[in-house]
Amino acid sequence: MNQIEAVIEELYANNESKLHQLCQKEMKKFGGIYQKDYDDFYSRAGYEIALARKNYNPLKGNGMEYIAGIIRFSILKEMRDRNRRKRQIIVEMEEGREYLSDIFIDMPVEEESKGIVGEMIPSGFNLEEIILEKMEGYEDKRIEQYLNHLPKVQREILEMKMESIPASKIKEKLGLSDKLYKEYCKELKSFSNMCILYKDKEKEGKGDKLGMSTITQTMENCKTDKISISSIIKKIEKHTIRFDHPLQRESEQWSPSMKGNLVSDILQGHKLHPLIFAEQIINGVPIIWDLDGKQRCTNAYLFSKNGYKVSKNIRRWMISYQIVKKDEKGKDVLDKNGFPMVINVEFDIRGKKFSDLPEELQDRFLDYSFNYDQYLNCSEEDIGYHIERYNDGKPMTSPQKGITKLGTEYAEMVKAISNMPFFKERGAYKISEFRNGTINRVIVESIMAVHYLDKWNKLEEMCKYIKENATIGVFRDFEKMVGRLEKVITDKSAHVFNSKDSFLWFALFAGFRKIGIEDKKFVEFIIAFTTSLHSKGIDGVSFDSILANTKSTKDKGIVRKKIIHLEKLMKIYLAE
Fold it and tell me: What is the model's pTM?
């Protein structure tokens, strides 16, 4: 008897007690499942196990872990199917039940039951339940786009989580630390990923015709108005407000306490700084770009989707609100004029997701309105000018500020290169470096070192120089070079491609390409350098001694000296 058959036999022993135990463990995660429904869930689990037993692969974990994952899927599937049916009116016919139009969420599940449909719907954002649609083979472009958007490691984590493989086993198999594993899991629910999942399908492939304004025929260059969070959510999902301008910094810049304080301020109705938008006419259609306020909008959006809990380290956590007073029978208490009487209550929002808030506070959050200023009929230069201007007094990092000097076209190409698998999966870059603009700096520095070393300067000056002197071919050439390295780089050599030294090795590889030998020799040199050659002297000077006598690692003279020394070392190594 093989392993999987032994596990199944164990499940069905003693009147299926083990199977029932595992099913009930998953069923407890949902509300509204009654004793009379248990057999349906047990049957669904048995059916899914029978289908899956043939596909068992020992490499995916031991048999019990595999079956536990199948049971989990079966409960999710049965719950989803029941939810779909419960949202419809059921008409008993001679030939069976017929499902008609939708019913309200607070209607009874069945005529004789005290339960309501809403109890059957799992609360909160469940990423794995959404992905389940794809795992079953349903045609959903959003799920497919979401999965394809994920870097290799994050996709592997999600797939293993879907199979109920414990976090400890996932970290062990992928060689991840606790901190890195948490970072990867956090990224699965990032703003850019969530937008893919919730994108308005009706708008896919269509022009953006639902902007905040039509083409403006006016001498006015700026207007002021208000926009609610619920409206922002809709416009994000319809892509009529864009937060991805190439010159704008990434989302996920705020700490947990900053996000929590934002939620607290919104729920208290406090006035926040106005959002700044810019209207740009593209192909006759007004596109609305966010220039300032991206973190406020994206974090409000993520909170509404249960993307994070309110931090415990916030300034004010007890939120006061009013509810209608109820009598002993649960009915509204009215005054002598027939108006409802209200009472003041408080709610602690620490550690709470959006779905954990009382309905009154959920409504208050969605109804909150930001003031906004919108610049009209802007050019690319206008947008870059405003982005830099509005971030002058805020903690915009040097790389984030520098990239505004590249211009939209080249900034777009830099960000496209930064999403290549080499940077996401092979190099020794931190996840935070993709959010704070460091990877963009790495690419700019590397292009300068490869093509314009004599013009090496401070980052902003280098960005200006590239904008004025580079061509698209320069970026295409660098992209090809990264693609070649991606194919040959190994775990023993990838660590030199980090945020500090990448430009040195890209510049060295650019020269190596002209020699005309196979790329794996370059990787062999990297390993030899990190093992021993870093201390090898040439005319009495070693790479280590250059580092020891250097205060500024990005000074033009030092950069040239390092690259020239590495070139000499490589020529000696390849000649041996």
Answer: 0.45
